[in-house]
Design a protein that fits this description.
- This protein has 235 residues and is α+β, with helices and mostly antiparallel strands.
- The protein has 3 domains: 36 residues; 150 residues, Immunoglobulin-like (Sandwich); 36 residues, no CATH class.
- Helices cover 16% and strands 44% of the residues.
- The chain is built from 2 helices and 12 strands; from the N terminus they run ααββββββββββββ.
- It has a 5-stranded mixed sheet with strand order 4-7-2-1-10. Strands 5-6-3-8-9 form a 5-stranded antiparallel sheet, with no helix packed on it. Strands 11-12 form a two-stranded antiparallel ribbon.
- β5 and β6 form a beta hairpin.
- The chain is flat.
- The N terminus is likely disordered.
Length: 235
């Protein structure tokens, strides 16, 4: 009798886990349908694992013709130089079914890409402290930026906006991100992404192809307009 009782308890636990997993997946699908999750993020995180974390990097060029003062190797400001104002969005997603703690996100910016500020995209998450370090030991003057995201529940998403100035002759693709969290047994769970995808561009405004890339026939082409996502605004 005791064996059958234990078997029944085990069966109930499996059903509960399955229902929770189904609920989380339903939430994820709803976010995709509502446009809260970019398709590139959804594609990358379509797999399932007990412990898994995903990071996805996107960008938007807010102003391709501006000026900025870039730090010299002695940390003093240089003269005003031609620059681009570029905003990066970093998605961090716990794609597993186990909570993760001590989640650390870091970004590496190539020489000529200068960190300005950052914040959480989602409202209500509070302030976000960034630790910035200009690596003077590296001849290419790489900048490292680190954020502590603390705890990440199963299927939870945190996204960060990072505003930068990029020298006019420097490729804005020169950013990479790395995320690491700890599972309950102390195992590190990690992911990496680089070469951010540009989210602004000419896109169809309506029909089945709405939101996909297009080439306008003229400046007055109403079906094909230059568009950016709603998060692509200066901080």
């Amino acid at each position: 009798m005791k064996f059958y009782y234990l078997a029944l308890v085990f069966f109930v636990m499996l059903v509960a886990v399955g229902q929770q997993e189904e609920y989380n997946n339903a939430d994820w699908m709803q976010l995709q349908e509502n446009g809260a999750i970019d398709s590139s993020v959804a594609t990358k995180t379509s797999g399932q694992s007990i412990r898994s974390i995903d990071v996805t990097l996107e960008m938007a060029i807010l102003d391709g013709n501006t000026t900025a003062r870039f730090k010299r190797s002695n940390r003093t400001d240089g003269p005003l130089s031609p620059a681009k104002l570029v905003l990066y969005r970093i998605w961090v997603y716990n794609s597993g079914i186990e909570p993760l703690s001590d989640v650390i996100l870091s970004a590496e910016l190539d020489e000529g890409i200068q960190y300005e500020t950052s914040k959480y995209y989602e409202e209500g998450r509070g302030d976000l402290e960034a630790i910035k370090d200009l690596d003077l030991t590296n001849e290419n003057l790489v900048t490292d930026v680190t954020w502590s995201l603390n705890f990440l529940n199963p299927r939870e998403i945190k996204s960060i906006l990072m505003e930068t100035y990029v020298k006019k002759n420097v490729d804005e693709m020169g950013v990479s991100v790395n995320v690491k969290g700890k599972a309950s047994d102390g195992e590190d769970v990690v992911d990496f992404d680089s070469a951010p995808s540009e989210q602004c561009g000419y896109k169809y405004t309506s029909g089945e192809s709405k939101g996909t890339k297009c080439i306008p026939w003229s400046e007055d082409d109403e079906d094909c307009k230059y568009q950016c996502p709603d998060w692509a605004k200066a901080i």
